[in-house]
């Protein structure tokens, strides 16, 4: 490793995207944490030049991205298709709301840790119950989970608030930062810090032994079992990690929005998450970034556009959905690997130039 | 006891609708190995066309026939134009494409007919226990299932369709037009889906009217076994009865959770559904 690095330093690649040769030599947790820190710095700079509204939208992009990244590990990694990911976001959101209401003294970090814990327990329960299922059977079972769970909010409306949901008040920017950042910008920063840390963790897991085992199971379950991989346990672990990411994302959503209703965790949410994952690119965690941006911004752009075109109300209300559907089909038709696949193909010549021979 | 009887009959009637939708999913799964999320969209188009035609002609039954025919055509078109080019790339992509189609059709229906509800009539009188409308639902689904069984088992077309589904290579070598058979499968499935839409539509239709029915249809197909049309019918009846009992005795808001419980229970005992044969695994 070291010998090749010195030799390629001598050759010197001039292209800017060329990373230092030592980069790959770093242990993967360090590498991912550095990337996360870089991402946070870029995001902070981005917030400085944009306004409050963008901050809130980017916060939404953040937690959506985390949720989808968890799904990427599960679906892209182990090949288990879950259509009920929104259910775990709902569990996370309601747990956060209940914690804030009933234990207001806990700091946000403790709330979020507890949320992850609850989501892990839920993930173990669901994952263990569905570990033997494969393909469409798992999809069907998780689908009905996503549809059924909001029913709980109506059933236990004294605790969970029925269809009006729960409303919480969360603290904004700390006093010493008053005037430097607005409350929305502070929330966006908190969300992105949490999201990037969690994603660094996910990426580390994904590039480590567990990720390799997951991909082995995805490609051939029997071969993986013969190679000594505990198939059932590994699948449950993947499910649990995904649900933890989903739960944490839901908790962050509750923190940003302050209102949690069963109506925001419908089947449509779960289906949008998986569709966006495929749209962004299922084979890499970068896909989650494109997916998060697509989920939040496509709808905003489409409704802005229809308002500008002064269309009929029925058309205006339905156009964003149609645009999302058309994009989904077109992208999968022409770029089966999603947006990330297309980006990789476009940048392939650049990377080839900078790669060591 | 009368409550029990009422709930049973109610459950049978709703179960018939779930069974019909499950049947349409199973036919497509058998033919192309994908769960068709666009099924409620195809049913939606059929029902809205039926609505428009019966408004224009003043006859429910002309609209009914028009709805079923448009379901047939829509199914064939979707398979040819949208599914076939993408189904090759990956299984998940094909599923997501049907999802995209669902979004487009639901949005499109909302654009043309509006998001508000339209009144959609029952075929027959619907008042009372096991009303004529309920009898019609159960009977039409039963007849459809029997016709389908006959088609698969006793006609040359059915034989070709089964051959194309189970051994595409061998079928092609024996002169079966495999692609045409897939299209036929989609068309028949969408016809049955359109029937399910006609039965599930009343009293009101709106672009999201079939979301719930569709979820229970998938559930029924999954617990019955995606490979077996009889399983679909059995699953539909099971889900219909289970949800009817739970909502009658414990409260309607628990009905969906009851469906979840049924799925978990059935699949933990038989992971491939009640009526599917365990597949031999090849290494």
TrEMBL record, chain A:
Task: Name any one GO molecular function.
Answer: branched-chain amino acid transmembrane transporter activity
Q: Which InterPro entries match?
A: ABC_transp_permease (IPR001851), LivM-like (IPR043428)
Q: Where is this region: Disordered?
A: 1-20
Q: Which Pfam families match?
A: BPD_transp_2
Transmembrane region positions? Answer: 30-49, 55-75, 87-106, 112-130, 137-156, 186-205, 236-256, 268-298, 319-336
Keyword annotations: Cell membrane, Membrane, Transmembrane, Transmembrane helix
Main localisation: membrane
Q: How the protein sits in the membrane?
A: Multi-pass membrane protein
For this UniProt entry, what's an example GO CC term? Answer: plasma membrane
Which CDD domains does the entry link to?
TM_PBP1_LivM_like
- Location within or outside the cell: Cell membrane
Return the protein name: Branched-chain amino acid transport system permease protein
- What is the organism field in this record? Nocardiopsis algeriensis
Per the UniProt record, the lineage of the source organism begins with: Bacteria, Bacillati, Actinomycetota, Actinomycetes, Streptosporangiales
TrEMBL record, chain B:
InterPro entries reported in the protein's UniProt record: ABC_transp_permease, BCAA_transport_permease
Membrane topology listed for this record: Multi-pass membrane protein
Arranged from A to Z, the UniProt key words for this protein are: Amino-acid transport, Cell membrane, Membrane, Transmembrane, Transmembrane helix, Transport
Q: Which GO molecular function annotations are given, in alphabetical order?
A: transmembrane transporter activity
Q: Which Pfam families match?
A: BPD_transp_2
Q: Where in the cell is it found?
A: Cell membrane
Provide the GO biological process annotations.
amino acid transport
Provide the coiled-coil residue spans: none
The residues that cross the membrane are 12-29, 34-54, 60-82, 94-115, 135-154, 175-198, 254-275
User: So which domain of life are we looking at?
Assistant: Bacteria
Q: Which GO terms describe its cellular component?
A: plasma membrane
Q: Which family does it belong to?
A: Belongs to the binding-protein-dependent transport system permease family. LivHM subfamily.
The protein's name is Branched-chain amino acid transport system permease protein
């Amino acid at each position: 490793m070291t010998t090749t690095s010195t030799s390629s330093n001598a050759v010197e690649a001039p292209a800017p995207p060329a990373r230092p040769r030592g980069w790959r030599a770093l242990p993967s947790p360090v590498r991912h944490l550095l990337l996360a820190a870089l991402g946070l710095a870029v995001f902070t700079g981005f917030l400085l030049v944009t306004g409050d509204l963008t901050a809130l939208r980017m916060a939404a992009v953040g937690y959506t991205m985390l949720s989808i990244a968890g799904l990427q590990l599960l679906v892209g990694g182990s090949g288990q298709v879950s259509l009920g990911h929104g259910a775990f976001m709902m569990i996370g959101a309601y747990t956060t709301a209940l914690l804030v209401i009933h234990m207001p003294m806990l700091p946000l970090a403790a709330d979020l840790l507890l949320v992850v814990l609850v989501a892990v327990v839920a993930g173990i329960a669901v994952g263990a119950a569905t570990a033997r299922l494969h393909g469409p059977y798992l999809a069907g079972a998780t689908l009905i989970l996503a549809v059924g769970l909001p029913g709980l909010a109506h059933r236990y409306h004294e605790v969970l608030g029925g269809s009006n949901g729960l409303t919480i008040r969360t603290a904004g920017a700390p006093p010493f930062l008053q005037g430097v950042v607005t409350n929305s910008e502070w929330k966006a920063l908190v969300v992105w810090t949490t999201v990037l840390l969690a994603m660094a963790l996910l990426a580390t897991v994904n590039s480590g032994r567990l990720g390799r085992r997951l991909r082995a199971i995805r490609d051939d379950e029997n071969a993986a079992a013969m190679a000594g991989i505990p198939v059932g346990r590994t699948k449950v672990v993947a499910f649990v990690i995904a649900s933890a990411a989903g739960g944490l994302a839901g908790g962050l959503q509750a923190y940003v929005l302050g209102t949690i209703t069963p109506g925001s965790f419908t089947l449509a949410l779960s289906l949008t998450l998986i569709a966006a994952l495929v749209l962004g690119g299922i084979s890499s965690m970068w896909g989650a970034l494109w997916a998060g941006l697509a989920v939040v911004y496509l709808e905003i752009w489409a409704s802005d556009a229809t308002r500008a075109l002064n269309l009929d109300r029925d058309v205006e209300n339905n156009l964003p959905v149609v645009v999302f559907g058309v994009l989904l089909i077109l992208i999968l038709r022409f770029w089966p690997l999603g947006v990330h696949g297309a980006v990789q193909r476009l940048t392939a010549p650049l990377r080839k130039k900078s790669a060591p021979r | 006891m009368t409550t029990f009887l009422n709930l049973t009959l109610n459950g049978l009637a709703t179960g018939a609708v779930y069974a019909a939708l499950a049947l349409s999913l199973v036919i497509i799964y058998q033919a192309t190995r994908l769960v068709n999320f666009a099924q409620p969209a195809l049913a939606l188009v059929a029902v809205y066309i039926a609505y428009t035609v019966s408004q224009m002609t003043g006859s429910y039954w002309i609209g009914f026939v028009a709805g079923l025919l448009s379901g047939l055509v829509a199914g064939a078109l979707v398979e040819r134009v949208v599914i076939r080019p993408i189904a090759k790339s990956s299984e998940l992509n094909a599923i997501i494409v049907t999802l995209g189609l669902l979004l487009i059709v639901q949005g499109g229906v909302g654009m043309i007919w509006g998001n508000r509800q339209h009144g959609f009539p029952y075929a027959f009188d619907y008042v009372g226990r096991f009303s004529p409308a309920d009898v019609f639902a159960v009977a039409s689904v039963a007849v459809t299932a029997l016709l389908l069984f006959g088609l698969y088992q006793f006609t040359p077309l059915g034989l070709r369709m089964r051959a194309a589904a189970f051994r595409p290579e061998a079928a092609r070598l024996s002169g079966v037009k495999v692609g045409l058979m897939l299209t036929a499968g989609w068309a028949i499935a969408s016809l049955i889906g359109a029937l399910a839409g006609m039965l599930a539509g009343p009293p009101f239709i709106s672009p999201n009217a079939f979301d719930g029915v569709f979820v229970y249809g998938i559930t029924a197909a999954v617990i019955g076994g995606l490979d077996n049309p009889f399983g679909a019918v059995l699953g539909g009846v099971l889900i219909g009865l289970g949800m009817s009992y739970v909502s009658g005795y414990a409260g309607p808001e628990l009905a969906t959770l009851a469906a979840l419980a049924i799925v978990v229970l059935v699949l933990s005992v038989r992971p491939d559904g009640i009526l599917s044969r365990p597949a031999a695994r090849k290494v």
